[in-house]
Design goal:
The complex is a heterotrimer of chains A (about 260), B (about 230) and C (about 475). Chain A has about 260 residues and is an alpha/beta fold. Chain A has helices at about 20-25, 30-40, 55-60, 65-80, 90-105, 110-120, 125-130, 150-155, 160-170, 190-195, 195-215, 225-235, 245-250, and strands at about 15-20, 45, 85, 120-125, 140-145, 170-175, 215-220, 240-245. Helix content of chain A is about 50%, strand content about 15%. In chain A, helix 5 (about 90-105) packs antiparallel against helix 6 (about 110-120). The relative contact order of chain A is 0.14. Chain B has two domains: about 1-35, no CATH class; about 45-215, Rossmann fold (3-Layer(aba) Sandwich). The chains are: A alpha/beta (about 260), B alpha/beta (about 230), C alpha/beta (about 475).
């Protein structure tokens, strides 16, 4: 059993392993860079282990526990050395924090390692506020925005107040509530392609609600959901621009929104 | 093997094969009730009758009420209701001795309750303040159908028989054998089955009017408190 | 024998999605239900504590189900009830029909019972040539229309008022003059009055079976249940074995949660407790009182790790909050029970092979569990079905291959880095002006929405470039 560091190297400068997530890695790296910037501003040393790949959620949710366990072991081995593991996604963080122990229900040794890792794993936005008491300073963005709560972040991890607290500190940003902000957008991982007509019906309703707010921006904490909603908004010809909340809070919303060319 | 044995057998097999110990099962069940306040919302302090009346006239229950000093005032209260509703029908009175001995001389008293009864006057055994509920037990003084056939159901309840919580009723009756039928009635019958629109008077009574009897009301005998909600 | 759907889930879904009136109807009913439930929960500050107690009560009963069944049977028999046991749906129907035939019953009134639907009782009565009169208004509408319930609390929510008006005009002896809803309800009241009086047998379900007195608790709003169970000579209750509760006091806790979760009220208009048949001194009531205890897969659920599903109070809150149910409605599920609880139960009742779509057609968003009054871990149970489906090889080959490839790549970071870098460049080829409108390999996404063009390099590539730049320049972040 590897020795796992239990105390932060320096309580005020913890070593954070950034779990970037597949979608940020492949589709929108800006989210990963925003996370790094924010974590550094919050006084953390950020390390991005090169051995990371996928948290295993697609396999786990498809019932393929065998592959899910294999990928979970990789993540645990790669990340258990850090003081914290931070993830710019509620669903991937939830996978590591809540579901790894379920995947290892019949394997006490790995279950223990999973539970140990779980105590140190956080979704990014809630980590910044709950653990680091972080607020952005000197960040401004003059726009109106509406926020969608991703289901896993909300229900599995209690991510709700924290992003809003930080967004409220962005000067000039006007937050307008989204009716049904806690209602699923219809992404659901592979659901959106396996049951695409139902997913479409759900995201179409969501897009209408977003458009009806009249907000310039749609923000959220999970790229899967954001891509789903952005893709629908764009297909509908909506003018709403979509960012990951971390990008706005890190002062990087002057760049291209999801789907915009640089 | 018959179905009973098969079912019990499968349940026990799933648990390792043995029957449980009845005494410890009973103890565990009892322990779940040790803090009744965990299983119910708190109702305001105060006289249960007032809370009961407030629930009755609330939109959720939608009954109307009248408050009188004594049982002898019931016929007058019934007359008030009929006049307010513009009703000129005969009335059926639940065969409760406390009702039957009252002065019904100015009424067209029907010998029994019919399927198309317009007005039935009944007497509840208890009221429950928490929910604005009336409790009936089937028996010689209380046919079940009496509470379900009339269009207008007028119910007399004595203030002293209004309990606070649902559990208070359960505790009151826990030592005796239950009657064939216990009816908890909370408002008039209704349905939202068509387009979600609420309509009163599906198969049971369309109107529930509760006559609360006993001192403690500041409206006894003046007949003015007659909140109608329809 | 339950009626199984003959067409595919996909076909039923497409049919539902193509019906805009259905969507309006579903949203009207479920949004009101959501709002009322939320108001009821908000009005009870310690609701979470009560919910936890309710869960504990149900778990206690499930752990000791044999004990409570035996206690119930003993006390019910002592009150004069006749208790029957049925292992399967067929047995339950046979028993019920036999009681009716022994009584030479010509007409039977029924109050709403989802368990009755589950075992196929309507069909069994029809086959036996016994006139069946559904008295719950929604079930009456469903009977006239010849279709099936689409929600467990509002079975006819898929019907518009115009459709109901037409049905009543076609079938009622004295139908409504105007098509306002109150007039239609009055027409149903008139139509069914005599049928109540004429019935030889009344069949109801049960919301709770109270062990310490052998009583049966039924909650309703219309008054039809009391007319159904008091007027005829015989009252038959069909109930699932999971309905047991230790005592009346325990029942009160569950009632509070059930009704608030279903309709937002504190109690239904009628909460009735039946204990045995008519007694000396009773002025009305049935001569015979039968209780049919039905297993039909419930013991199998205990064996298959689905014990938590037996907590279900049949309140309907899960489907009211389910984004999938709200789009496709109840019929698309193809079984007796729709929504999240239906997605867990239907594979038990009808076999996983035929019903595997139900646990898969779910985003696992967890709203259902959140609003469940007894905290059933519905997403976990649905995922459990997915695991079983995978182990039994029921998943499409394309999915198995794709996941296998993905997992292989993800276990080998070096390959993964290369693979993702290639994938990103390939995807970018399909994009125009920042978006891909038609993705290779999977049509599901781009049929309905655009896919954002990936950035030129993966995060890991970009990070490595930045770090070598910094090394060259001698700078550090």
């Amino acid at each position: 059993m590897p020795i796992i560091s239990q105390t932060p190297r320096a309580a005020n400068r913890p070593e954070v392993g950034l779990f970037v997530t597949c979608l940020a890695d492949m589709i929108r790296p800006r989210v990963g860079f925003a996370a790094m910037r924010l974590l550094r501003q919050a006084g953390c040393n950020v390390v991005v282990p090169r051995a990371q790949t996928c948290c295993g959620q697609p396999a786990f949710n498809s019932g393929d526990s065998g592959h899910a366990r294999q990928l979970a072991k990789n993540v645990i081995k790669t990340f258990e050395k850090f003081d914290y593991v931070v993830v710019p996604s509620g669903s991937c963080a939830g996978m590591i924090k809540l579901h790894y122990r379920q995947a290892f229900a019949d394997d006490p040794a790995w279950k223990a390692r999973a539970e140990n890792l779980a105590t140190r794993t956080y979704e990014l936005l809630s980590f910044l506020v709950d653990v680091r008491s972080f607020r952005p300073e000197g960040v401004s963005l003059h726009a109106s925005a509406t926020y969608h709560d991703t289901c896993s972040g909300l229900r599995e991890l209690g991510v709700e107040v924290q992003p809003r607290l930080m967004l409220q500190a962005v000067e000039g940003l006007h937050l307008t509530p989204l009716p049904g902000h806690d209602v699923c957008c219809g992404f659901g991982g592979t659901f959106c392609v396996k049951y695409s007509s139902i997913s479409n019906a759900i995201v179409d309703e969501k897009a209408r609600d977003i458009e009806a707010t009249g907000a310039d921006l749609l923000l959220g904490g999970d790229l899967g959901c954001l891509m789903n909603m952005a893709g629908k908004l764009h297909r509908r010809g909506a003018r709403t621009r979509v960012f990951h909340a971390a990008e706005v809070i890190a002062g990087m919303a002057d760049g291209p929104a999801i789907g915009e060319e640089a | 093997m018959n179905a009973r044995d098969a079912i019990i057998g499968r349940i026990r097999a799933n648990r390792g094969g043995k029957a449980g110990d009845p005494a410890s099962i009973a103890a565990a069940a009892k322990a779940l009730l040790s803090k009744p306040e965990s299983g119910r919302p708190r109702i305001d302090a105060g006289e249960p009758g007032a809370i009961f009346a407030a629930h009755l006239v609330s939109p959720k229950v939608g009954a109307s009420i009248d408050e009188i000093a004594g049982l002898e005032d019931v016929p007058q209260a019934v007359r008030r209701y009929l006049d307010a509703q513009g009703l000129d029908a005969g009335i059926a009175v639940q065969p409760d001795p406390a009702l039957l001995r009252l002065d019904w001389t100015s009424f067209d008293l029907l010998p029994r309750i019919e399927a198309d009864a317009i007005v039935g006057v009944g007497k509840a055994l208890w009221g429950i303040a928490e929910t604005g509920t009336l409790v009936f037990h089937s028996g010689p003084a209380s046919p079940t159908l009496f509470s379900f056939l009339p269009l207008h159901h007028l119910v007399v309840i004595e203030r002293t028989r209004i309990l606070s919580y649902l559990e208070d009723y359960a505790l009151l009756v826990q030592d005796g054998a239950p009657p064939r039928n216990v009816n908890f009635i909370t408002g008039a019958s209704g349905t939202t089955d068509i387009e979600g629109t609420l309509v009163k008077g599906a198969h049971g009574p369309r109107f529930l009017h509760v006559i609360i009897v006993g001192p403690g009301s500041d409206r006894s005998n003046d007949g003015k408190r007659n909140d109608r909600t329809d | 024998m339950s009626l199984k759907a003959i067409d595919s889930f996909e076909t039923r879904v497409e049919k539902a999605l193509a019906n805009p009136t259905l969507k309006i109807a579903i949203e009207r009913t479920t949004s009101t239900a959501r709002m009322k439930r939320a108001a009821a929960v908000a009005a009870w500050p310690d609701f979470a504590t009560a919910r936890d107690l309710a869960r504990q009560i149900k778990d206690h009963v499930i752990e000791n189900l044999d004990h409570y069944l035996i206690e119930f049977e003993k006390n019910a028999a002592a009150s004069g009830a006749k208790v029957h046991w049925a292992a399967t749906a067929d047995e339950a129907c046979k028993i019920t029909v036999a009681i009716c035939q022994a009584a030479k019953a010509k007409s039977v009134t029924r109050s709403k019972s989802m368990l009755g639907e589950e075992i196929g009782l309507p069909h069994a009565l029809d086959e036996a040539g016994i006139t069946r009169v559904e008295t719950d208004l929604a079930e009456h509408i469903v009977q006239l229309a010849g279709d099936r319930p689409s929600h467990i609390i509002w079975p006819a929510l898929h019907r518009t008022r115009e459709e109901v008006a037409d049905l009543f005009r076609a079938h009622h002896h004295r139908p409504q003059n105007s098509d306002d809803i109150a007039s239609m309800v009055a027409s149903a009241r008139r139509e069914l009055r005599q049928r109540f009086l004429d019935a030889d047998v009344g069949i109801s379900g049960a919301n709770f079976l109270i062990a310490d007195t052998g009583s049966v608790c039924v909650v309703t709003n219309e008054g039809n249940a009391e007319l159904t169970t008091t007027l005829p000579r015989i009252h038959i209750v069909t109930a699932g074995i999971e309905k047991l509760v230790p005592s009346l006091q325990h029942t009160m806790v569950l009632l509070r949660l059930l009704v608030r979760s279903a309709t937002g009220a504190d109690l239904t208009q009628y909460t009735t407790f039946h204990c045995g048949p008519k007694r000396p001194g009773d002025r009305d009531g049935p001569e015979e009182f039968h209780i049919v205890l039905v297993d039909n897969g419930r013991t199998r659920m205990l064996e298959q790790g689905l014990a938590e599903m037996l907590r279900c109070l049949r309140c309907g809150a899960c489907m009211n909050h389910c984004v999938v149910y709200r789009q496709i409605g109840g019929h698309a599920y193809g079984g007796t029970y729709p929504g999240p609880m239906g997605a867990v139960l239907t594979p038990v009742l009808d076999g996983l092979k035929e019903t595997r779509d139900l646990p898969h057609a779910c985003t696992l968003n967890g709203n259902c569990q959140e609003v469940c009054p007894v905290d059933i871990p519905l997403p976990t149970l649905l995922r459990g079905w997915r695991e079983k489906s995978w182990r039994e090889g029921l998943e499409p080959q394309t999915v198995r291959v794709a996941l296998g490839l993905w997992a292989f790549g993800a276990r080998h970071p070096f390959l993964y880095r290369i693979g993702t870098a290639i994938a990103v460049r390939v995807l970018r080829r399909f994009a125009q002006n920042g978006w891909i409108t038609s993705l290779p390999l999977t049509k599901g996404w781009t049929k309905y929405r655009d896919f954002p063009k990936p950035a030129a390099r993966t995060f890991m590539e970009e990070l490595r470039r930045q770090e070598s730049r910094e090394r060259e320049q001698g700078t550090k972040p």
